[in-house]
Each structure stands twice: as structure tokens, then as C-alpha cells.
Amino acid sequence: MDESRLDGLRMAWLVAQRELRDQFRDWRVIVPMVFLTLFFPFLMNATAKAALDFAAQYGTPLVAERLVPFFMMVVGFFPITVSLVIALEAFVGEKERGTIEPLLSSPLKDWQLYLGKLVAASTVPIVTAYLGIAVYLISLYARRIPFPDPNILAQTIVLTSAQGILMVSGAIVISTQATSVRAANLMSSFIVIPMALLIQGESILMFWGNNQVLWLAVLAVSILAGLLVRLGVSHFQREALLGREIDVLDFRWMWRTFWRSFRGEARTVWEWYRLVIGSALRRQRVAILGLVVIGVFAVVGGYAWLSSHAADLTSASRSPDFINFLESGMGVPTFDRISAPYIFGNNVRATFFIFILGVFSFGVLGVLAYIINLSLIGVVVAALPLVGIPPLLASLSGLLPHAIFELPALILSSAAVLHLGAVLVTPNPQRTLGEVLIEAIADWMKITLGLVIPLLAVAAVIETYVSLPLLLKTLGGL
User: Fold this and answer.
1) What's the confidence (pLDDT) of residue 322?
2) Which residue, of 125, 130, 270, 425, is most buried by count of CB atoms within 10 Å of its CB?
3) Cα–Cα distance for residue pair 77/133, rounded to 1 Å
4) Distance between CA atoms of 377 and 298, rounded to whole angstroms?
5) CA neighbours within 13 Å on the CB side: how many for 103?
6) DSSP characters over 280-326
7) Where does 58-109 have alpha helices with state H?
8) What is the DSSP string of 174-240?
9) Ramachandran region of residue 329, left (φ > 0), alpha (ψ -120 to 50) or beta?
10) How does the average pLDDT of the chain come out, rounded?
11) Half-sphere exposure at residue 130, Cβ-oriented, CA atoms within 13 angstroms
12) Distance (Å, rounded) from C-alpha 90 to C-alpha 120?
């Protein structure tokens, strides 16, 4: 690391020290925070003890044992939500108090100012989370309750850190965009509620004992936290912070910005495809190429995974429950109920679902859904020999005809979502965060309306009238 960057980090640390001194001066913030942090672990410890005793009466100790690490995760999450108020008022609070002008007029660079605020706002929540976990573990030892598995313990601590940085970085972004502390506090629900839902999903992984999958959740949360930090650093501008006094929801401006990006300079449909769509594809060519490579690995990975578990699946397929599941139709519509509109509607819903996931995760969850979709292809191809169907013949007849159109549509749609996340975390001083988001959504809409939906319509027709009849004919000849 060169000397200039070290000097820049020192300046950011000076800002963080200033913030930490201000935070610890206000006892009305620190005392309730410490009291709640110390009280909550004892409450969770008593709950864990009651759950263990209750489960022992009915012979289900495994459920209670897995409640212990779940309570530890909740103990780490609770102080972060309480301390989130510090991050929410990091910029907008100083602006309301009139103390931010000297700081913004200093020779500090924007990234130094933002990073210093982020470090200071992250320190207290994460330290209090660690304090709560430590008190919880000490109380477990005092009550002679067995500690969680070391792997689960490490996962919970790392996950708590990643979630703390994710929540604080999101709160800092809100603080830079809000015009009042009241608005920032109201917008904090967009952080707390999704994180609460995420913890519910993580708790399911804990109860099922999926430790490897839980590490993937840790990786995903860490990536999202890093992207959110990058987003804040990229789009923080002190001039905008000083110049914005009140926000007005201007639908006309939003529509004009969207329409200008969506239409471009085209006057005809042909010009729109040639100029606007062509330009959008050129901007997304790296994302498209990357998703093609990722898709190949996903298909191969799905095939390899099921092939390695073929023996277990073969024995499981002979169980009465699995046979009844197959006879009931597995919840999948029968061939006589499948139609082109049904397939088309299902694929369009999946496309919009990937988009919604991508918008709220900078493209990460959208790409994850894309990987799951393609890995299922490998899983299905690998499963065909288990039921006596030649995989190559079935793939050529039942998959290839419509996949020629459906897979490019999936790749293009997912690449547009990935591109949306990439432009959000890329510095662009000429555009506000709102403009960048609207223009990125317009790019996705161009690709979706101009290419993805027509390709999905053709794929649905081919799948209904070509792929399925060919597959039935092939299976009937075996």
C-alpha cells in the first residue's frame, strides 16, 4: 500500500475517532444500549434452559440443542438493531444539528469522510453484539448448558459481523439520502425487516443442520455487505448533502428519466433495436459472457452433484413415500394441462422474480437464482439414467428444441440484472444514485421487452408443440 493511501486512511481514522468520542459522550445513548445488551443474553439463556428442559420431557433433545445457537444469533442481532440509530443519524443528524458544515468544509476527500463515519458507526453495534454473545456464552457455562458446535459458533460470530456491517452500511446510505432524522428512522424498516427475514432463513438452516449451506449464507451476506459499502463510497457527494433540504417524490421526473433512457434517440422500432438495444447489449457484454461461463459450471456442477449421490437416490426412490409422491404427480401439472400460455407465464414470472431479487441485492441473489435454474438442468439430465431413460436422447428431444430460445432469454435477463448491480456500485459523479438506478432499470426493461419476452414466447410455443410431443414419442419408444 503506497504512502498516499495510508495517509488517506489515517485521515478517515481521524473522522472515526471524532465520531466515537461524540458517541461515548452521550450517556443517554450508551447506558440504555449497554443495559439492553447485558440483559437480553440472560433472557435468551433462560429461554434456552426452559427449551432444553421441555424437550427432555418429550425425548427431543436435538431440537433444543439447535435452539441454543439460534438464540446466540438473535443475541448478536438484537444489539445491532438497537445501535442502528447511531448510523441512521451519522450524516442527516449532524445536518439537522448544524454541526456538519465544518466537517464538510475540511480538506477531507469524500471517501475519507464516508469511510470514517462508517467505521465509527460500525464499531459500537459490532462491539455490543460481541459483548452480548460473550455474556450469553458465559451464562451458558454457568448454567451447565452445552456450548454449540465450534463450527456453528464460528459461523454465528462471522455471520453476526457480516450482518452488522451490512445493516450499518445500509443505514449510512439512508443517512446520506434522507433529509431528516425522522425520514431516516422510518426508512430503517427497509433494513430491519429484510434482515429479520434473512435470520429466519438462516435459522431454518441451523435447525436442519446444513452447516455447509450456512457457510454459503455467510459468504452471500459478506458479499452484500461489501457491495453496500462500495455503493455508499461511490455515490457519496458532500455537495448533494448540503444542497438537498427536502425531497419531493417527482413522478414526472422519474418517468422522463426512464423514458429518455428507454427510448434513446430512436424514432422507429428498427432504430430502437439497432441503436438502443444494440448499445445496451454492448454495455452488458462482460456480464453476458460471465453468465455464460457461470452457467456452464452450474450445469456441470448439478450433473456432478447428483451423479455422486446416485446410490443414495436410488435407494430412496424405492421407499413407499417417494413412490406415493411420484404417483400424486409431484405437484407438477400433467402434460394435458401444460399449454404455451402456462409455460410463457411461468417463465415471465421467473424473469421478474430474478429481477426483484437482483434489485435488492445488487444482482447477487438474481445470479444465484440463475445458477439454481441452470444447475437443475444438470440434475435432471443426471437423474434420467436412474429411471432408465437415455439422457442424450431425452435431452435432444425434450430439452434442446426450446432451450435454444429459452436459455439465451434467461442469460440476457440475468445479465441485465447483474449489470444493474454493477453500475450501482460504480462511481459516477455526473449522476445521482436515483438517476443511476432508474437508467439501470430502463436498460433491464429494454432487454426484457425487446428480446427476452419474444424469446420466451417462441420457446413456450416450441416446448408445447415440439419438445413435449417429441419427448413423449421418445419415451413411448423405449
Assistant:
1) 46
2) 125
3) 10
4) 9
5) 25
6) HHHHTHHHHHHHHHHHHHHHHHHHHHHHHTHHHHHHHTTSHHHHHHH
7) 61-88, 92-97, 101-104
8) HHHH-SSHHHHHHHTHHHHHHHHHHHHHHHHHHHHT-HHHHHHHHHHHHHHHHHHHHHHHHH--HHH
9) left
10) 79
11) 9
12) 9
Three-state secondary-structure class, residue 352: helix
DSSP count for the chain of H helices, then E strands: 24, 0
| Together in a domain, 262 and 221 | no
DSSP 247: -
Range with the largest mean pLDDT of 21-25, 407-411, 430-434: 407-411
133/33 same-domain check: yes
> Alpha-carbon dihedral of residues 98, 191, 234, 264, nearest 10 degrees?
-110
CB atoms within 10 A of CB 396: 14
Q: Are 424 and 440 in contact (CB under 8 A)?
A: yes
Domain end position, chosen among 216, 243, 270:
243
3-class secondary structure, 2: coil
Cβ-Cβ contacts under 8 Å for 408 (sequence gap 6 or more): 455
Choose the final residue of a domain: 243, 269, 295.
Answer: 243
Same domain for 163 and 290, yes or no, is: no
Domain that residue 193 falls in: 3-243
Rounded Cα gap, residues 441 and 429, in angstroms: 19
Q: What SS3 class is residue 58?
A: coil
Which of 40-49, 282-291, 307-316, 352-361 comes out lowest in average pLDDT? 307-316
Closest to 158 measured CA to CA, from 228, 98, 73, 241: 73
| The three three-digit cell numbers of residue 42, written as one number | 440472560
pTM exceeds 0.85: no
